[in-house]
Amino acid sequence: MHENHPLVSTTLTKVSIDPNKDRWSDLGSFIREQRGSARLSLRRLSELAGISNPYLSQIERGLRRPSAEILQQIAKALRISAETLYVQAGILEPPDGTPDLSRLILADQTLSEDQKQALVRIYLSFRRDYEDEHAHGHAASTIEATSRDGASAAVTHTAPGS
Predict the structure, then answer these.
(1) What does the alpha-carbon distance between residue 115 and residue 117 come to, in Å, rounded to a whole number?
(2) What Cα–Cα distance (Å) separates residue 28 from each residue in 32, 87, 90, 99, 127?
(3) Residue 72, helix vs strand vs coil
(4) DSSP readout, 24-45?
(5) Are 71 and 91 in contact, with CB atoms under 8 Å apart?
(6) Is the whole-model pTM more than 0.85?
(7) Which CATH superfamily groups domain 1-94?
(8) Are 86 and 68 in contact (CB under 8 A)?
């Protein structure tokens, strides 16, 4: 059949029909990792997020594309920022040149959930303060983080050179 067309190759290459398929699969894997870190069963996370067990399973396997609202519900149930899931889903762009420290903290298996949440809150507060200082010229900022067990910490950060 191809003898009249020397340039036609008979080798087939698997091409993904959906160029975003890997993104959805990666999002599902990320949600599964976070669920494992939080020691939640699929059923329990689906209950906490207010979505069906089969739907969550399909999201974790990369078969479904959850809306921003569903991602927000999942994030709340996992006690992570919705922005983290939005970036994973491609809804938001990751910050330019900034590593996703929040994701690394949340993936750390040696920390308790309370410790992870406290660290992420402190880190994000420092990031917001830094952005505010550079936008408005403020020199110092104080943040307070409270973990689920009621422990709290206040930290004052003074910008270098002030």
Answers:
(1) 6
(2) 6, 13, 13, 20, 27
(3) helix
(4) HHHHHHHHHHHHHHTT--HHHH
(5) yes
(6) no
(7) lambda repressor-like DNA-binding domains (1.10.260.40)
(8) yes
Range(s) of the chain covered by CATH 1.10.260.40: 1-94
pLDDT band at 83 (very low <50, low <70, confident <90, very high): confident
How many CA atoms, within 13 angstroms, populate the side-chain half-sphere of residue 64?
16
Residue position matching structure tokens 């975003």 = 20
For residue 47 the two structure tokens come to 């209950």
**Is residue 90 predicted with pLDDT exceeding 60?**
yes
For residue 112, give the 3-state DSSP assignment: coil
SS3 143: strand
Would you say 88 and 102 are in contact if contact means Cβ atoms under 8 Å apart? no
Whole-angstrom distance, CA of residue 66 vs CA of residue 72: 10
Which spans in 12-137 are helix H? 21-37, 42-49, 53-60, 68-78, 82-89, 101-107, 113-136
